[in-house]
């Protein structure tokens, strides 16, 4: 199947400054992709290119097979209607009601009045705002405003939904509910979603696949599990992952040594698990097979997309710790020894 979005060797500069450098990736129909990067990485510039507000100086951007970089402006106006945009600050018209805001793209598309009302009711139901038609944006919470923003973005049945820092202005609870809503929309409508953000925690919970932009270059393309497993020596990934990874408890940082001490000690490890291994009874297994006592110090198992994934810091203690470590190395996606502490720590 052809990709819904195909970015080929896109380069774009502002004067001497290269904001995007030879970017290539493609997105399949129905995929949920998180595009992450620090401030200045080039996210907004790429987003503007994706929705044809900026024409890259080099390369091609194909949306459903149509090259945006070669279309005349009047064609681009029509193509932009096929891209739903969700903004950080909602961009709602304060003088219009909720229904009036959602109606806007329908009016631009020339949708008959009767059909507009039915479509608005359908969209309000989809985003969980039934009965909110007559309210004004000033009467809504941030999360509700973003639901209106999403309904408006979906109104004209877009081919692609682009979310630009869609949760960055929201509190954690609203962020969660908006991410759940977007996941629900992806499941129900099979809509392709590209979510642009600087927050790893957002893509961690939501994206099936993560693209990392750094200094205008696409430096990573993979799943969170790929990054946790292989990112140990990758500074860009380490910086991004530091926001979401469990860290060593402070009460241990002072006593952690690089080599095992004389006398009874615990081995402190970081473990990345996925799929079956994340749901297995790890602690009882280590105890039964090796007589090793394992204690969870930080982290745990969470659901990432459809899969279970574990990222945790453990302490292990027992005479057969070496054998237990060899076993974990085989069973886990990644196992790293962080150091050793005296038993009484
Ligand atoms: N119109 C412009 N003129 C000149 N330089 C620009 C322009 N737009 C962006 N840049 C530069 O291009 C680089 C990428 O900017 P961009 O806004 O795409 O990054 P970003 O990842 O979206 O950052 P942020 O998260 O802070 O919004 C930056 O160095 C920025 O200063």
Set out the fold topology.
Elements: E1 5-14, E2 17-27, E3 32-36, H1 43-50, E4 58-63, E5 66-67, H2 73-80, E6 83-86, H3 98-108, H4 113-126, H5 142-154, E7 160-164, H6 172-189, E8 192-197, H7 200-206, E9 209-214, E10 217-222, H8 224-230, H9 235-242, H10 250-253, E11 265-274, H11 275-279, H12 282-290, E12 293-304, E13 307-317, H13 321-331, E14 334-342
Parallel strand pairs: 3-8, 3-9, 6-7, 7-8
Antiparallel strand pairs: 1-2, 1-4, 4-5, 9-10, 11-13, 11-14, 12-13
This protein binds adenosine-5'-triphosphate (ATP).
The site of adenosine-5'-triphosphate has 12 residues, from strand 2 and helix 1.
Number of domains: 2
The percent range for strand residues is 25-35%
What does the radius of gyration come to? 24 Å
Distance between the termini: 56 Å
Task: Identify low-pLDDT runs.
Answer: none
* Secondary-structure element string: EEEHEEHEHHHEHEHEEHHHEHHEEHE
Named at the architecture level, the CATH assignment of the largest domain is 3-Layer(aba) Sandwich
Chemical compounds bound to the protein: adenosine-5'-triphosphate
Determine the CATH topology of the largest domain: Rossmann fold
Taking the sheet with the most strands, its summary is: 6 strands, mixed
InterPro entries: AAA+_ATPase, ABC_transporter-like_ATP-bd, ABC_transporter-like_CS, ACT-like_dom_sf, MetN_ABC, MetN_ABC_transporter-like, NIL_domain, P-loop_NTPase
Family: Belongs to the ABC transporter superfamily.
Domain ABC transporter: 5-240
GO cellular component, one term: plasma membrane
């Amino acid at each position: 199947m052809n990709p819904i979005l195909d970015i080929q060797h896109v380069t774009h500069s502002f004067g001497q400054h290269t904001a995007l450098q030879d970017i290539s990736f493609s997105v399949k129909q129905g995929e949920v992709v998180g595009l992450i990067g620090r401030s200045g990485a080039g996210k907004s510039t790429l987003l503007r290119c994706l929705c044809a507000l900026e024409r890259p100086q080099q390369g091609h951007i194909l949306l459903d097979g149509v090259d945006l970089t070669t279309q005349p402006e009047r064609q681009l106006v029509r193509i932009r209607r096929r891209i739903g945009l969700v903004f950080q600050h909602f961009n709602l018209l304060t003088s219009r009601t909720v229904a009036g805001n959602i109606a806007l793209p329908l009016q631009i598309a020339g949708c008959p009045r009767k059909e507009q009302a039915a479509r608005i009711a359908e969209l309000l139901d989809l985003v969980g705002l039934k009965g909110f038609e007559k309210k004004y944006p000033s009467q809504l919470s941030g999360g509700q405003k973003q639901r209106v923003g999403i309904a408006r973005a979906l109104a004209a049945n877009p081919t692609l939904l682009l979310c630009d820092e869609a949760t960055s202005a929201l509190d954690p609870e609203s962020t969660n509910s908006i991410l759940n809503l977007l996941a629900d929309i992806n499941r129900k409508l099979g809509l392709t979603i590209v979510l642009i953000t600087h927050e790893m925690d957002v893509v961690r919970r939501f994206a099936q696949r993560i693209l990392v932009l750094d200094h205008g270059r696409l430096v990573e393309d993979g799943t969170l599990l790929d990054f946790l497993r292989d990112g140990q020596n990758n500074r860009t990934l380490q910086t991004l992952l530091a926001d979401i990874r469990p860290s060593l408890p402070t009460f241990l940082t002072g006593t952690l040594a690089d080599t095992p001490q004389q006398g009874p000690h615990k081995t402190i490890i970081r473990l990345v698990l996925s799929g079956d291994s994340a749901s297995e009874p790890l602690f009882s297994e280590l105890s039964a097979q090796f007589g090793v006592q394992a204690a969870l110090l930080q982290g745990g198992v969470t659901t990432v997309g459809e899969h279970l994934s574990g990222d945790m810091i453990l302490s292990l203690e027992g005479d057969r710790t070496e054998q237990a470590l060899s076993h974990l190395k085989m069973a886990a996606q990644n196992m790293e020894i962080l150091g050793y502490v005296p038993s009484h720590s």
